[in-house]
Amino acid sequence: MTMQSPNLTQSFKAAIMVALGLTASTLVGAGGCADRAGHALCVDTEVDYATCGDLPDPGPEGPDPNDLDVRFVEVCFDGSEGCDPCAAEAITGAAVERLNGQCEVVDIQHVTLTCGPDPDPTVEDCCYKVRLEGDFSCGVEGRPLLAGAELTPRVAALQTGDAWLAGTDRFEGLRRPQDPNTVEVLRTYWLRRASYEHASVAAFARVSLQLLSLGAPAGLLRATQEAMADEVRHARLSFGLAASYGGAPPSEAGPLRIDGGVTTGMELQTALREAIFDGALGEGAATIEALEAARSCDDPVVRDVFLRIAQDEQRHALLAYQTVKWALVAHPRRAREVVRDCLREGHLRATPPAAELGAAEDDALRRHGLVASNRRAWIRHESWSGVVAPILATMLASGLRY
Fold first, then answer.
1. What is the pTM of this model?
2. In Å, how far from its chain's centre is CA 235?
């Protein structure tokens, strides 16, 4: 039976709300898009654009692990001369191209133009949502390192070496599978995780510079520096586990290209968007996923690693919320506008599957802590709709003091 996370999600939300000084009585709904009355330009479908990217409730048993991965992609075109209702091929083609830029696409089986154009009067372009089904590997572990308009997070190339290994004594008693294929899946999982955790060190260096450039208080800077140290530890643990499973010489991270990825995007809008989508959503979902992995894992060594990661990721998510809270107090007009925009587009960010990192549909992999790719998608979806969106909406409605 699929391990469920609603209790984990609600417990996580409660912890964040308490830390932010919010109470359940102040929690408000996230709401929808802006009022569209009187704006009928280029509306080709009666489907509600605001909700057509939402996934249906899978029920108490959760999603079927044999289901295809589902991702909604929004694509936009110049709308200065109106929208072309006959441009379906160009629209779906652009969506596939965008997906290829964001994910490792193994196979695309179905592409459907779901709805559009967006009837929001504030949107000048012709925007559509496209549903893609297949086998994808999307998302990252830790905070992603992106540069400019890049869609694919940067990671360092791996090389043979042991400079990033945690002490091997930490993994004494590790239960190594007898099946070599299972060993390879686990080793690949932890190496890929290690690569992203390693890159997250640079991502938090970028956050530090953003906060400094915006005049943030010392507490946020100190927490960001602590998060960098956490990511170093996560990377070392991941490299160490990969090496402990065996099957190949130990690996370490090579040089990481950071040009344009650390010192750009210092403005408030970028910093807040990254805090919301990479921090509150990404690291919040990572917290719940790590807790769920720990629950299903019957190896005490690996379970302890997941629990440590979950503890750290929860602090990182809280740091993101605290950054938003500070910005809403220090820069209320601009910050409120950014948060409202993020609430409008958040459900699209919450439906894609997170990194697949190997198929975890069978019990052997699940017992080693791997969470199925479509289950990861649902954790992300639940994290946005059940945690991030209502907390952000409550922040907007509350008289915050930092």
1. 0.71
2. 18
Residue linked to tokens 């605290």: 322
Of 60, 143, 117, the C-alpha closest to 309 is: 143
Written as six digits, the tokens of 252 are 């370490």
Instruction: Convert the pLDDT of each residue in 146-197 to its tens digit.
Output: 766 565 788 889 999 999 987 767 788 899 998 999 999 999 999 999 999 9
Residues 216 and 307 grouped into a single domain: yes
The total number of structural domains in the chain stands at: 2
Angle at which helices 373-383 and 284-296 cross, to 10°: 130
Name the residue among 194, 290, 196, 286 with its Cα closest to residue 242.
194
How many CB atoms are located within 10 Å of the residue 367 CB? 16
- Residue 98 tokens read as 């965008």
Cβ neighbour number for residue 19 with a 10 Å cutoff: 14
Q: Domain limits at 381?
A: 143-397
Q: Which CATH number fits the domain that encloses residue 258?
A: 1.20.1260
